[in-house]
Amino acid sequence: MKRESKTQYALLGILTQCEMSGYEIKKFIEESLGFFWNESFGQIYPTLKALETDRLVSATEIVSQENTKSKIVYKITKQGIVELKKWLEGSTSKSTLRNEFLLKLFFARNIDSKKLMEMINEEETRNLDDLKIFQSIKLNLNEEHKKHPDHRYWIFTLDYGIDCAKMTLKWLSKIKKEISNLS
Amino acid sequence: MKRESKTQYALLGILTQCEMSGYEIKKFIEESLGFFWNESFGQIYPTLKALETDRLVSATEIVSQENTKSKIVYKITKQGIVELKKWLEGSTSKSTLRNEFLLKLFFARNIDSKKLMEMINEEETRNLDDLKIFQSIKLNLNEEHKKHPDHRYWIFTLDYGIDCAKMTLKWLSKIKKEISNLS
DNA sequence: TCGCCCATGTAACCGGTTACATGATTTG
DNA sequence: CAAATCATGTAACCGGTTACATGGGCGA
To answer: Does A127 share its domain with A70?
Structure first.
């Protein structure tokens, strides 16, 4: 069984928005997919070059003007869209998830009870912060990008983040109660 | 910033249960941590050896008897427990999550609507299957291992899986409705 | 001038999976 | 007898991050 990186498809998908440089793609990922996907420059730049040699994207150098610096923008080609659709409509492999917090909780018998509470409180804060961010992004999305062709799908993924954070918060408060009742 | 594999801590944590061979550790992971952690033999065996040279575990060869095959069982040492606790009570880094389903959904404008529905239905089935498995494990855990010192923590992590699957199912049915209403 | 952001790139490294080899024992 | 499971191990490979280099522009 061979593995195949999904980085290429992430980049192709992003380039269905508009043409972008590697640097802009990185920013887009951080701002939009950050909570369920990420890529480093060490992946983005070489993958863009590989996509270009495969003719799935085309590169154009934008030369330095006043107020702008030179950059290389990439545009998805027809073949690129074909390849993207193949992946989109193909089977989805479940990602190998590794949750360090759950792993620690599984072994929590070995944690000092005070430290355990601290750990859970930190997780609570993290999720509360995430929730706030997601909700403010959703507000902004509904105000400024309502007409964007991808708007509904962006809301779908964002709602997942919101529901996930809310569920986790409920679960955390539940286990906090049980731990304080019984220890 | 250096990275440090968590595999060693996962193994140390598991060995707080009882002494086990590499093979048994693998089975334990699959049966108990499977939905939020996994390790391959290619990691387990070399890591066990490294833990042994660091004196965090001790190895004993169980020679072949009638009905049993020879195997090497590993036992956590006092230093091992110290190192485990250091990790447990240290800071928890959030794992880099990559959710292929969400990535596809984010780009779903490029998916044929019938195929999109199929994709969502598959995700629904996957979550329903997971939920059933988690619930049966929970039943079994409450019947057979109620007295186990780790019982409550096992239930906590399991409950997370259950709540997560339920939340995802709700969210999936919500987006299904919205897609069928508006397309 | 200093630090920050824009912008591109790559080499070294690491963590992990896959695929294989070996061989015993058990089960259908 | 074949297939599955028990049991250990490793080499090749891959995907990804980190850390670095380079250099221009811009604001404090």
So the answer is: no
